[in-house]
Write a structure and sequence with these properties.
alpha+beta; four-stranded parallel beta sheet
Length: 283
């Protein structure tokens, strides 16, 4: 079989390991979305490990020719828009943090001025990308500091939920779930190390919650960032399409198997949210 990688970084540890596994019996071709045109003959399946505009355009072109792409361009793009992400998750009944959207950081700051109840808050760029804004804002002094560089940035704002300062980094490749703990970038100490977390040590129902996110967002390879609230219940704060999943034993094997499975039996076309309302949802 022919497996295509849509990525400018084929040496990424996960992709390099998957390539090593697949090339024992199959052909792996790399498409750099910055420079490479779509090939005249499509591969049996493509892995979309890039979220840039050229990568999404290339994936859409290949999908239009009937190629199987993991994840789809539409599902990947949706996860970049934090407003759309939150709206879909909450509409589906997922325990996602309540999210408000502002046309700019300055617009939010103007409304928060003099309102003590506005703090603490978690402020993020509406468009998820490398180097975007993600900050816990505890008061007016931080607002002034951030406004210097982000005043015109469209943002989403979430009320800060007290937690232990550690994010549960949960990843899925098909039905296979992986987990780790990482000190949150919003903690006073800043982003910290990643600690192994066996999936069977997750609280009951959390692995199934991850799979439910995949069904709602029409994702095959994805990450879900979850914090445990003071009551111990999960709160989803982010969903990522095709994260790195570094250092997770079995992840390359799971991804190689998924690629071959999708090549043999492509998933029927379905956009994110296609199944919303079909199930019981969550309270």
């Amino acid at each position: 079989m022919r497996i295509g990688l849509i990525t400018p970084e084929p040496g990424h540890p996960l992709l390099a390991a998957v390539t090593s596994l697949l090339t024992r019996e199959h052909v792996v071709e790399v498409l750099d979305p910055r420079t490479d045109p779509a090939p005249p003959v499509a591969a049996d399946v493509y892995l979309l490990k890039s979220r840039t505009a050229p990568a999404l355009a290339l994936a859409r072109h290949l999908e239009g020719r009937g190629a199987a792409v993991v994840n789809s361009a539409s599902a990947t793009a949706l996860c970049q828009d934090r407003t759309a992400m939150a709206a879909l998750a909450r509409r589906a009944g997922l325990p996602f943090a309540a999210t408000r959207t502002y046309e700019s950081f300055a617009a939010w700051a103007a409304g928060a001025a003099g309102d003590a109840s506005a703090f603490p808050a978690v402020v993020k760029s509406r468009q998820s990308r490398r180097g975007d804004l993600v900050a816990r804002v505890d008061g007016p002094d931080q607002v002034s500091d951030l406004a210097a560089g982000w005043a015109q940035e469209p943002v989403t704002v979430q009320e800060f939920t007290p937690n232990d300062g550690w994010d549960h980094k949960l990843w899925a490749v098909g039905d296979r779930v992986f987990a780790a703990l990482r000190r949150s970038e919003l903690s006073p100490q800043g982003r910290g190390p990643t600690r192994p977390l066996p999936v069977d040590e997750l609280p009951p129902g959390w692995a199934d919650l991850v799979r439910e996110v995949g069904a709602v967002f029409a994702l095959d390879v994805y990450g879900v960032d979850v914090i445990a609230t003071g009551a111990g219940s999960p709160l989803i704060v982010d969903v990522n399409a095709f994260p790195g999943i570094r250092g997770q034993a079995g992840a390359p094997e799971a991804l190689a198997a998924l690629a071959l499975s999708r090549a043999r039996t492509p998933r029927p076309p379905a956009g994110p949210g296609a199944g919303v309302g079909a199930g019981p949802g969550r309270a």
